[in-house]
TrEMBL record, chain A:
Residues 6-242, 259-503 form the ABC transporter domain. Gene3D superfamilies: P-loop containing nucleotide triphosphate hydrolases. The keyword Membrane applies. InterPro entries: AAA+_ATPase, ABC_carbohydrate_import_ATPase, ABC_transporter-like_ATP-bd, ABC_transporter-like_CS, P-loop_NTPase. This is Simple sugar transport system ATP-binding protein.
TrEMBL record, chain B:
One of its GO terms (cellular component) is plasma membrane. The chain crosses the membrane at residues 12-33, 39-58, 65-88, 94-117, 154-171, 201-226, 278-296. It comes from the Bacteria. It comes from Anaerovirgula multivorans. GO terms for molecular function: transmembrane transporter activity. The keyword Metal-binding does not apply. Keywords: Cell membrane, Membrane, Sugar transport, Transmembrane, Transmembrane helix, Transport. This is Simple sugar transport system permease protein. It is a multi-pass membrane protein. It is found in: Cell membrane. Coiled coil: none annotated.
Length: 517, 310
């Protein structure tokens, strides 16, 4: 293995909203290796790589390439220094051909016109050299994902990338495409290129990476040779609670089933299997947590349950009613509340006032609506009551939601969703990116509602939250429920980590009681 | 009505279609360039109007056709720079800025006209110049076709040439490729070091220059004077033509011809004692019909695409 080609030293990055994304991180990569960068969502991987590629600038720390300190202030500088990045969302122009995309910005010219023949020749040449075979004249919009990724890699190579950053490259690929990609990466490595491979799939890292750096909570928690470290050790380093925040609650007294999901499958537009025979249920008066690394089907599952997307196979029953053909409004009327992980898109209308956001699900209610005209006074007193109850810090109900802090915006969402007398609450990452005060408040309310007999389905990538709040615990991995625990207090973090990263999987008998009531 | 058909199928009618299409064609090409770069130029109407006035004033003062046309083009570029500065640097809404530009031009031209010609309606007191008409040897001796194609204003030929040039520019030159990339996926262009804003500035300037030529033709070819609000919606008709032509130079050319036809038809019908108000409606009704047909087709295409996906 070669010399140290890249060193990021004592890197600290604090975002304007005060979130510390990286704290004193050291990251070193040797020439000609495939180096895995691993960590949970929010561990700071993306931020670290964005700084390397010039999309963000660090507050503190230095970056060295081949021992020389450099300042990377834009992607152009990064490219000049031999750093290329393959983004998760491809940076390709769909209506142009592969060759045109390849030479965009560095077009070969002849008499002032683009030399298309040369562009095709350049593409063919580099494509042969690295054994990444593409058809230069094909249009991007007609290509499958795996092919687009090849074009992205070639684009970076054409611009002289020595260090190639791949941001979760296999997340969008089918298993066959993944296999191909790995063969290509090995070829690249043999030709002397250095690859930084961002992933949280242990199996893949074991398969092709030489070394691994693990981040947790914005800090580096270790660098290892992949062959010297077991999957269990990696899992222990990566998954864990930095702070154990105990939450007081009495044991749950579950009653009737309010949500029942049975053998639901889901295939996305690209033909990828996202959900695979998911089955579970939630009863009145209990909190069921779903733990798992993001991107293992949780988002899609919630979209199906809340009616944002349609399911083809299996059944979802809320309060004894199959929801397949119901509108979102009808589903909500069954007694479902939804706290979306994407607060600003599905949670609130940011330019509308607190009042408008709160009545958005009940403006047609007879109490608030007199034959098409809103009863302003009733609405104002209702909203005022909710603002007090939910401790929303604001000037008044007319204030646009956009003016509030993240925590208070979430409280507005929660105030609406919890006050609609729900029978089941779907809480998807309910406390992401908000302050501690608001977090504790939301926990209290969730437990209070549970004690009043509401069923709660909690999806969270915050391990502490999902372990402390849940009465029962499920783990999702690769679109399946891979584990189910009757009593969440009896599970250890280490055990959970193994399931979350796909090292272990419960056998059918163990999960059986989850699938049948 | 019986009188209408012989007129429509006459060579002089075909000639007049080309004549009235010219300003729409210039503006449509201007719309293509800016639209391809992802910056819709709603200000075309006002830019053309202002360019028309500046062409008249500068040619009257210098007694030079060339300077007149160049001034019109320069006015177009300048106004589109204003649009670019407000929308790209100061991040104002480009549609609203374009509308503001149109309103500004409508009033501003009358103000300047009064200063230059002491008249608030028309510039006949200025001795402005006109771009000459030329007859093309060889073509003018072809029967029928010669009568239609020969003897036009130079700017009409320039506009036809521009269809071809803009096609070459957009699809065969580096800048054209970058403009298309910027308009379609700015992130992708940005990621390979292309300055999105710079490209959009350039596209708007080219767009302004083309609209400037359209304005010059209005007051220095189509007629030989400037009159208030003389562009009469041609800038908007051009946007419709661009949409109907799906943003390709050739398709847009055909769409512009359709609108030119409607315009020429309304000119002819005025002489046939059809109520003037009805006749004046024709080009605009055609625009609306054109856009409705276009969007129905688009919708069907999207539906079909969705069906194929599922």
């Amino acid at each position: 293995m070669g010399n140290e080609i890249l060193l990021m030293k004592n890197i600290t990055k604090v975002y304007p909203n005060g979130i510390v994304a990286n704290k004193d991180v050291n990251f070193s990569v040797n020439e000609g290796e495939i180096h895995a960068l691993m960590g949970e969502n929010g561990a700071g991987k993306s931020t670290l790589m964005k700084m390397l590629f010039g999309l963000e600038t660090p507050e503190e720390g230095e970056i060295f390439i081949n021992g020389k300190a450099i300042k990377i202030d834009s992607p152009t500088t990064a490219i000049k220094n031999g750093i290329g990045m393959v983004h998760q969302h491809f940076m390709l122009v769909p209506s142009l051909t592969i060759a045109e995309n390849m030479v965009l910005g560095i077009e070969p010219r002849k008499n002032g016109f683009i030399d298309f023949k040369k562009a095709v020749a350049i593409t063919e040449e580099i494509s042969k050299k690295y054994n990444l075979i593409v058809d230069p004249e094909a249009k991007i919009e007609d290509l499958p994902v795996g092919m687009k990724q090849k074009v992205e890699i070639l684009k970076a190579l054409l611009r002289g990338a020595e260090i190639l950053i791949l941001d979760e490259p296999t997340a969008v690929l089918t298993p066959q495409e993944t296999k191909e990609l790995f063969e290509e990466l090995v070829t690249l490595k043999e030709k002397g290129h250095t690859i930084i491979f961002i992933s949280h799939k242990l199996k893949e890292i074991k398969e092709i990476c030489d070394r691994i750096t693990i981040l947790r909570g914005g800090r580096s928690v270790g660098v290892h040779h992949v062959k010297d470290v077991t999957q269990e050790e990696i899992s222990r380093l990566m998954v864990g609670r930095d702070v154990v925040l105990k939450i007081d609650k009495t044991p749950a007294k579950p009653k009737e089933i309010v949500l029942k999901v049975k053998e639901v499958n889901h295939i996305d537009v690209m033909g990828k299997n996202i959900l695979n025979k998911i089955s579970f249920f939630v009863r009145e008066g209990e909190i069921v947590g779903i733990a798992g690394v993001e991107g293992n089907g949780q988002r899609e599952l919630i979209e199906l349950i809340t009616g944002l997307d349609q399911y083809d196979e299996g059944s979802i029953v809320i309060c004894d009613k199959e929801i397949r053909d119901l509108t979102i409004k009808q589903i909500r009327d069954l007694g479902i509340s939804h706290i979306s992980e994407d607060r600003m898109t599905y949670g609130v209308a940011e330019f509308a006032s607190i009042e408008e956001n709160i009545i958005s699900d009940r403006f047609d209610n007879k109490d608030l609506n007199n034959k098409g005209l809103l009863k302003i006074r009733k609405i104002q007193s209702l909203v005022k009551q909710l603002i007090d109850d939910y401790k929303v810090k604001c000037d008044n109900g007319q204030q646009p939601v956009k003016m509030l802090s993240g925590g208070n915006i979430q409280k507005v969402v929660v105030a609406r969703e919890f006050s609609s007398s729900p029978k089941i609450i779907i809480a998807n990452q309910p406390t992401r990116g908000i302050d501690v005060g608001a977090i504790e408040f939301i926990y209290e309310k969730l437990i209070q509602l549970r004690d009043e007999g509401v069923g709660v389905l909690l999806i969270s990538s915050d391990l502490n939250e999902v372990m402390e709040l849940s009465d029962r615990l499920l783990v999702m991995y690769g679109g399946e429920v891979v584990a189910s625990f009757e009593d969440s207090t009896k599970v250890t973090e280490e055990e959970l980590g193994m399931y979350m990263l796909g090292i272990k999987k419960q056998v059918f008998e163990e999960k059986r009681r989850v699938e049948n009531e | 009505m019986e009188n209408l058909l012989p007129i429509i199928f006459s060579t002089s009618f075909a000639y007049s279609v080309l004549r009235v299409t010219t300003p729409i064609l210039f503006a449509s090409l201007a719309a293509i360039i800016s639209d391809k770069a992802g910056v819709i130029n709603i200000g075309l109407e006002g830019i053309m109007l202002f360019a028309a006035l500046m062409g008249v004033i500068s040619s009257a003062f210098t007694q030079s056709v060339l300077i007149g046309v160049l001034c019109a083009v320069a006015t177009g570029v300048l106004l589109s720079l204003v649009l670019a500065y407000f929308s790209l640097n100061l991040k104002s809404d480009i549609i609203l800025t374009g509308i503001a530009l149109n309103l500004f031009s409508s009033g501003g031209t009358v103000f300047l006209l009064f200063l230059a010609a002491q008249d608030k309606g028309i510039s006949v007191s200025l001795q402005s110049k006109v771009v000459p008409e030329i007859s093309i040897p060889l073509i003018n001796s072809i029967p029928v076709l010669g009568e239609i194609l020969s003897g036009h204003n130079i700017l009409t030929y320039v506009s036809l040439l521009c269809v071809f040039l803009i096609h070459l520019f957009l699809y065969k030159t580096p800048l054209g490729l970058r403009i298309r990339a910027v308009g379609e996926t700015p992130n992708a262009a940005d990621s390979v070091g292309i300055s999105v804003r710079r490209i959009q500035y350039m596209a708007l300037m080219i767009s302004g220059a083309l609209a400037g030529l359209g304005g010059a033709y209005m007051s220095m070819g189509y007629v030989s004077w400037f009159s208030r609000d003389m562009t009469a919606g041609r800038g908007f008709i051009a946007l419709a033509a661009e949409a109907m032509g799906r943003g390709t130079p050739l398709g847009t050319f055909l769409a512009a011809i359709i609108f030119g036809f409607a315009d020429a038809l309304s000119n002819v019908m005025q002489s046939l004692r059809v109520p003037a108000e009805f006749v004046q409606m024709i080009p605009y009704v055609t625009t609306i019909l054109g856009l409705v047909i276009y969007s129905i087709k688009q919708n069907n295409k999207i539906k079909k695409y969705r069906r194929n996906q599922v």
